[in-house]
Records
---
Amino acid sequence: MGWQDFQDDYNQPDTRWHKGPLNLLTDVPGITVGHQTVRLGKVQTGVTVIQPATGNVFREKLPAAMYVINGFGKSTGFMQVEELGTLETPIVLTNTLAVGTAYQALVRRLLAENPEIGISTGTVNPIVMECNDGQINAIRTLSVTEETIQQAFAACTETFAEGAVGAGTGMCCYDLKGGIGSASRQITFDGQTFTMGALVLSNFGSLEDLVINHRAIGKELKKVIQAEKKVEKGSIITILATDLPLDVRQLKRLAKRTSVGITRTGSFIGNGSGEVSFAFSTANRVAHFAESAWSMRTVLAENLMDDCFRMTVSVVEEAVVSSLMHAQSTCDIHGKTVYSLSDALARL
């Protein structure tokens, strides 16, 4: 089976859903994504920024929910999201030891945009999420700086690369090269079309477990790719966004279903792994400075949620596979080759 045969097989259209025009998270209107990649010798790391909506997100917040599938991680801001159900900053993805730097950079950015923070109103709740890229990246060099984060912000557009870029530069997935993956789906209710998009930072799994299109491709690749037996300590961050008018409880239910899309690719959610899902809606924005005592919102009927659940599983599964399909082979910090999916398949 060659790479082209694999692509042709995988890219067969899914008759249940239409993909968005870009098949990316940014098919949800208003979202942009930017990467900044840092490569210098054994340093292979970076930052990915998600601007979740147009306008000032601190003053016009987004309904949001998060779900920790397995909590081996160092993300920030989750406690307040769990309590209040809102997203009020862009989202930054990076490596584990750069979380503090990213947090500080987000704070500086939000302070500059909102002079009332910490004076006439409360503080701010930055959302930063991470995976450990120490297998490929010399993580102890602390090579992500505040300037790196600001460069990722400057690069935010509707079109963005996948694979070994930005925060995904040093990540491994199923013992292959992983990183950033994305996909989107569209659905129609009462004649109106809505979009759901997913973006993953994939850094988990063992080759022998990899399943694509219900095919145990990992077992086949084990015959030609040497992968050491190891304890599962990987992670995956999943960002799920939609313009569907969903409330916080419904978003949390979607976030839970991302685990099904991840496990369809073969994951068993290891003891030492960190699987975190974050879901938000760009509809029904929440004013920081409310002008009325009442907030009137339209919310999707509950009996339509099954369609949303199925769509969540589909879009997350493809995003994980997309992170593998777009990555390139590289060397880890010990000089060992970490194969891309395409190069691995070429060895069969």
Note: The CA atoms of residues 81 and 95 lie 21 Å apart.
---
Amino acid sequence: MRIVNMGEWPLGPEDEHPHPPNGELLWNESWYYDFVSEDGDLGGYVRLGLYPNWGRAWYWACLVTADGGRTAVLDHEAPLPGEDLTVTGAGYTAAHHTTDPLRRAEVHLSSAALSLDLTYETAGVYGYAITPRYEMPCEVTGTIDGRAFRGHGERDHSWGVRDWWSISWLWSSARMRDGAYLHGMRANVGLELDWPAFQRPPGGEVVHVPGFSAATTFDGDLPTETVLRFPGHATTVRPIAFAPVTLTSPGGAVAEFPRAMCRYESEDGRVGFGWTEWHQPPDWREHAWRPPV
């Protein structure tokens, strides 16, 4: 398994564990676990986000179906977990275990609304250059509400200041039916950068892809289509089912987080499924996504 780290910060198995915070209120550490079935009919995600200087954790678990079903466990005042990353809130217990650092992890949720027991087997590791963060395309197996599940997804881990109310961004990750994985992220910061983007060809290794860009069409505030442009080809992303979250800052500002399970269609005819997010802080339209030049 190849580890690609675009950053100057070291990346190793020890980074799977929690990191010491600095003194800023919005210092955050988070773990994401996305999943989609091979046929694109069922998907979801889990996110555990720690705000130690704010005295709370955020726990999200969302499940959607292609026919419009949605179930969610959302807690923005969860107790901060210990090193074992187990959270017990009102009506739920959630556990997150890295059983083999950078290679295997497990996610468990027990609640009246939803139960998850999933294992993530890593297919590659990609570290960002612009912030301490890494992404791992994965094969995902286990059970959802007691029923067998097999699919794919991505998990990531990041730490540092996370101000949800100041910057909009797009993040997208998918696995194509031919076995290829793709990932691209860009923030709306007023300039173009070498954005975090990778591809993993069928049976190959994760490689950084320079020159990634994206353009989104909206109907009101709702994204209807995004075109991801990688060198030499484009992939069109269309939402299948949304699992949004509303986020309120310590000062009362509100941001919307319309995350969706999506269908991906490459211009060479390949099809796949994954997750995309279009983060919308206050006044996000002032920095809306624009077509690439």
Note: The chain has one domain: 26-287.
---
Amino acid sequence: MLFTQTMVSLRYYFLALSMLLIGIPHGAIDHIISSRLYDLKGSISDQLKFYIPYLLLMFLMALVWILSGIAGFILFVIITIYHFGQADIEHLDLPDSSKRVLTISRGLMILSLVIFVDFNYTLPVIGEATGVALQEIEWLYNNSYLLAILLGLQHPFLMSFLTYQNKERFELSWWYPVLDSIVILFLFLFNDPIIGFSLYFALWHSMGHFLEMKDFFNKMGESLSVWKFYKLALPFSSISLFGLAFIYLINNSFGLEEKMVSLLFILISVLTLPHVLVVEKMLKTKR
């Protein structure tokens, strides 16, 4: 990797900035989206129809982690692969079968790059979360960067094949999505994985999700400006930021970086499960 020391010193600033500006807010209006999807009003009974299932899903995901760290990690991997692919591929005008393939391919590329580009960093975090000593799997440890390249390259190749096969559907050029996937691949391979993920999460995933929400509101007869988006997201964003600040202070006080990062990793997975289901329902309704 290039400029390693500089990147390492800046990695958490990039992560905090991406979370603050768009990462946390993009998931903080699930309750607003659900109120439009299910015609929920402001009454207590209607609000409970959202919060009880949402919190129950969070509790169940947390319970899986408590009962088995490896089961929680596997479930998180499956959910994350689907969610990243789901959000990034939705805008492409492709047959459903091609979209399904590219959804898994895209999510697999992103998660593989995050995990395997710098295995020396991610391995202790995963080990702390799952209780599994992955460094004992020698072939995985020795070939992690090669694995990142191979699992990363599969997506541009599949994207090239499927977009060219359906090139008549594209208003501009079929190779734009291919170029997009190559840019992301290089963003991770020649960068610190935390910085690479922060840039991807802010500029591709969260921003793309905001545009999908904006389109959804438009089709529901409402507008969603940037100002309105942040205003709606403010209450739950504030709660999330308070929690992150608390984790940061503990880490600074006790120097428990691996434990804190793994805890953050688990908390994100707990929040992701209900969020994915809300997004899936929103996209289906929008179509």
Note: The CA atoms of residues 107 and 114 lie 11 Å apart.
---
Amino acid sequence: MRRTQREAADGLRRTGGAPVVDVAGSGARRTARWRRGTDARGRTARTRGRVLAASAVLTAALLVFHSAVPNAVGRPGSLLEAFLPWLGLAVPVLLVAGLVRRSVTALVAVLLPAAAWAVLFGGLLLPADRGAHDITAVQHNVSDENPDPAGTARALIGSAPDIVALEELTPAALPAYEAALAPEYPFHAVEGTVGLWSRHPLTDVRRVDIRPSGIGEGWNRGLRCGVRTPRGEIAVYVAHLPSVRFRSTGFGSGPRDESARLLSAAVAAEKVERVVLLGDLNSTVDDRGLAPLTSRLSAPRRGFALSWPAVFPVARIDQVLTRSATAPEVWTLPATGSDHLPVAARIRFDAS
């Protein structure tokens, strides 16, 4: 013991009193841990990264079981579903974190949300079916503050649609839209703030009452028109559902959901088999608030077509839905003077 103490004292004298650090020894221990796959706390590639793995499992669960998220208070379920595809951003983040942590458990767990997202939304990224179609439709909330109605109308004509549905029409701007669209679309109907322009004759035009309770008279945002296409008559509905609001009590979607139920009842009663619904529905097709409609009508098969807000679109709330018809592809058109992007879709009628 005395010899060891003397040797330590001699070592301190040789180093000027500074402690000696066994760098070689600690480096060797780190190298050994690396080779064994353990970290400083002795965790292996299989046992570390459990928090990351749990986060991956939670993300996958939210994607697959989003309908299980309660909606009674504050409607968090609808809020989640309105932006559901964006949960996919968690996948690359978790993947990079798992690589940094060198965690096999986390990397395997990341496969769960990746697979769930691919099943739910991967098909929208596949190449569009651009085969034969019967009509092309354009849907656009033109904004009641649009500074250039005529320019907006000309931009929509450029995509050569057969029918054009517009929302947020104002009495002041309506003449400009009518004048610009009339040469290409001689048939049109307007009800309140929504309207339809068509290359083909219109029949049985009428207002659709989708006014939720608590909103006074004069609120007209629903329109139904028969359109006589070369392939037969279709019923076209144009609608603008109430906006949602973020309040202290949560996601305020009650009026919109009620309006969706009223619109669904009108579609259910429609006698014409082929139906096309064009409108600003103020949510995505994944939102359970639109389930009364999406349970009766089909959404496009290809394309995300995020339409709102125009400066940085995060959701497609402008919809093209069909019955006894399919929309093989949906896409957005260049920005206009609106805070929404126009949405276009090719529509193919089912065999009658």
Note: The first helix runs from residue 2 to 14.
